[in-house]
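Could someone model zinc ion with this protein?
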Amino acid sequence: MEIMKKIKPGEIFMGRLSHGADLLEEITGFCTEKGIRLGRVEAIGAVQRARLAYYDQKTREYLFFTLDQAMEIAKLTGNISLKDDQPMVHAHVTLADSAGNAYGGHLAPGTVIFACELIIESYEGAVFERKFDAETGLPLWDRS
Ligand code: ZN
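Reply:
Sure, complex below.
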């Protein structure tokens, strides 16, 4: 735990997202519009289809996959920080099908909202900027 920073609560937003819109783009767009540069996000709801990713630790590449079916958002959780000085939403989702089978992964563009109830907590008091991390190949929070 080498980069734990103390942060303070900021504004909290609660609402729902538009039917038919892109889930990740809607959340990112809201953060950009409100100037949220640090925070956390949580949501439940349903999607018409999903596009997720799995990070292959050996090849250091995201493997994207599509789930072309209607599913529940059993849980969306993520954080908001900066990449190239712009808000970046990093979210993971657990989705459930009609039999209760769960799928999960890193939320990617291409996930279409059926309905989504969202809470965003913004934070203040520290800057978290994503930079390339040589150990993992990922854009992780800078140590400074
Ligand atoms: Zn991820």
